[in-house]
Design goal:
heterodimer; A: 308 residues; alpha/beta; 2 domains; 4-stranded antiparallel β-sheet; 12 helices; B: 340 residues; mainly alpha; 72% helix; globular
Chain lengths: 308, 340
């Protein structure tokens, strides 16, 4: 928990037609953070992820990645700023080998004409709309294609470097033995791990994990908990994860945000969140509260669904 | 092998081999004609495979880009017919002009590819198919109604400067380009788009940019193929670039296996020679010239039937996404694969 926030979400909301899928969402992830995002089905967790990664554009509020406002930027641009994710329903490149899955993410960062720093600087100053920066990017890319087609010695070196990096990530995730196997042929747990390896290939500073433990058995879940902590320390990441498995979330997250019907109903340390009557109500219903002699919280404005 | 040589060696070898072939077989007119037709179809199939196979988009207007290349190169050659570059012998001057017009044809087609591709490739789904289909028809109708392009009669009298060497060197270049794309970061990004566009975008791949680049490269080579075509057939007219031609190329790519370069080559060679072989067969068994001529007309039904059989027996095409050396028996030495 140090330094400036890598991911900063301020009062973000999105409406689909008249449906408020997410409303007034606040979040901050710093280096070394391990935060959790939970909530019943349909609470807006994955919507939140899709907003952060640029799949949806928020209708309200502001999202900043590493200090830069990213509202309306394309997902790949946001990824380049240092935000990577995994998917709830595994979305590997099924026909590609495990190694190639990671190598796609380890995009070569070739800068044959203009340096990345210079382009990024231009982008920052114009809040992502610089034509010159785009032209520089395009020219870089153009030259890089020619280097690939002519198979220049420099290009070959870069390819080898890239392969080395990908192999390293595979070995961190314990997948070295699957190097040349097609992703679709891997067992489920390994596919989940390969997705994380792929996300790490993009050199993220914040990693978003969407239900990383879904479909895993108890043993695999325990291993995953150790692994997630290890990744955070080894790559000095900030991690935000969505998870349904309470044991896992309560076990590793230092801070948990609870969503229900698109609104944050609780936020804080796991012990506090666990005892919050609103959270218990959202998960178990108010009849449970009443039958156990707990106070029933007043109805929140969230229980109405404004539909246009 | 030193890295500097790895890039260049195939080109040198190809030039040497093709030069020998040109010397040996260049004097047989019918053979050269047939080899040129096959070569042009191979270029079309391999280049379309970059878009339809590797990137997983669906373009069905390749004949349109071929037409742009053919008419641009053909018209330029006609204009430059009586011009010679000073200080060069006539033959050399002709060849320099020929190469120039080919490049012009390719670039014109690539520009069209950019204009057509940029808006339609931003979207996911079948939009590209609709737009390219429309583009192919528009090009055909436009040349059919412009006096500069000879309307329905087409262009004739284009200098026949093409040769076995020229056509097959272009074939070599397009295959080399396709293989090198597959083996590079760029190729992997294209495959990633084919597999899962949302995931590719989330992993930092500029999906729209990559799709457009693949499409422009593909259009460029279609234009070159058209340029070559214009320089060895006696006449080019809108009838050579109909929707049927586009479908023919799509059939080649699908039959060879979407994503397999060697598959596209094999399918293009086979499907081009099939009608020729049938024609010769009918002539030899004495079925009469009329039946032999009908072969051309029954070509499309035959393609259709072949495609249906293929879809039933081998839906992934001849080689699927693999290359010929991946499916050869083990005792044949294998080439290094681009994708592991």
């Amino acid at each position: 928990m140090s330094g400036d926030p890598l991911l900063q979400v301020v009062q973000v909301g999105i409406e689909f037609g008249g449906l408020r899928a997410l409303h007034g969402f606040d979040l901050e992830v710093r280096r070394g953070d391990l935060k959790g995002l939970i909530g019943p089905n349909g609470a807006g967790k994955t919507t939140a992820f899709n907003l952060l990664t640029g799949v949806y554009v928020p209708t309200h509020g502001e999202i900043r990645v590493c200090g830069e406002r990213v509202n309306g930027r394309q997902p790949h641009q946001i990824n380049h700023l240092g935000l990577a994710r995994t998917f709830q329903n595994i979305r590997l490149f099924r026909a590609l080998s495990a190694l190639d899955n990671v190598r796609v993410a380890c995009l070569s960062d070739a800068q044959p004409l203009f340096s990345r720093a210079r382009i990024d600087e231009l982008r920052r100053r114009s809040s992502g709309r610089s034509v010159v920066a785009s032209a520089m990017d395009a020219l870089n890319n153009y030259v890089d294609w020619w280097r690939a087609l002519l198979l220049t010695p420099g290009f070959q070196e870069e390819e080898e470097e890239l392969t080395r990096k990908a192999e390293e990530l595979l070995s961190v995730m314990g997948l070295s033995h699957r190097r040349n196997e097609e992703a679709r042929n891997l067992p489920y747990g390994e596919q989940r791990r390969l997705e994380i390896a792929r996300a790490l290939g993009t050199r993220p500073r914040v990693l978003l994990l969407d239900e990383p433990a879904a479909g895993m058995n108890t043993r695999e879940k325990a291993d995953l908990m150790v692994l997630i902590r290890q990744l955070r320390d080894q790559f000095s990441l900030g991690i935000l994860l969505i998870e349904h498995d309470m044991k896992l979330v309560m076990g590793i997250c230092e801070n948990i945000t609870v969503l229900d019907h698109g609104v944050t109903i609780a936020c804080g340390a796991p012990e506090r969140v666990r005892q919050d009557p609103k959270v218990i109500e959202a998960y178990l219903g108010d009849s449970y509260l009443a039958s156990h002699g707990m106070p029933v919280p007043p109805a929140t404005p969230t229980s109405e669904h404004p539909v246009a | 092998m030193p890295p500097a040589l790895r890039g260049l060696l195939p080109v040198l070898v190809a030039i040497a081999v093709l030069a020998v072939l040109q010397l040996l077989l260049g004097g047989l007119p019918f053979f050269v004609y047939l080899a040129s037709i096959v070569g042009v179809n191979v270029i079309l199939a391999v280049s379309l495979n970059i878009v339809n196979g590797m990137t997983g988009q669906f373009s069905i207007g390749h004949a349109g880009f071929m037409a742009v290349g053919a008419y641009t190169a053909g018209k330029l050659s006609l204009l430059l017919k009586d011009v010679a570059i000073s200080g060069l012998p006539g033959v050399v001057s002709d060849q320099v002009q020929f190469v120039g017009t080919l490049l012009a044809g390719g670039v014109a087609a690539a520009l069209c590819g950019f204009v057509v591709g940029l808006p339609s490739l931003r979207l996911r789904g079948d939009y590209l198919a609709i737009v390219t289909l429309g583009f192919g028809e528009i090009i055909r109708v436009v040349v059919q109604n412009l006096d500069v392009f000879g309307r329905a009669l087409g262009l004739s009298g284009i200098p026949q400067t093409s040769s076995l060497f020229a056509v097959w060197f272009c074939v070599f270049v397009v295959v080399l380009v396709a293989r090198r794309i597959v083996g590079s970061t760029h190729g992997r990004s294209l495959w990633a788009i084919r597999e899962d566009e949302v995931a590719a975008e989330a992993m930092g791949v500029d999906t729209t940019g990559y799709k457009v680049r693949a499409f422009v490269i593909s259009s460029f080579f279609a234009g070159v193929a058209g340029g070559l075509f214009a320089h060895f057939v006696p006449i080019i007219n809108p009838g050579s670039f109909t929707f049927v031609k586009s479908i023919e190329v799509v059939v080649m790519v699908v039959a060879g296996g979407l994503g397999s370069t060697t598959g596209a080559i094999v399918a293009a060679v086979f499907l081009t020679l099939l009608p020729e072989a049938l024609r010769t067969l009918f002539l030899n068994v004495g079925a009469g010239a009329s039946l032999a001529q009908k072969v051309d007309q029954i070509r499309m039904p035959v393609y259709g039937i072949l495609l249906v059989i293929l879809m039933l027996v081998r839906p992934q095409g001849l080689f699927g996404t693999r290359e010929i050396w991946d499916v050869l028996p083990r005792w044949i030495p294998r080439a290094r694969k681009g994708l592991t």
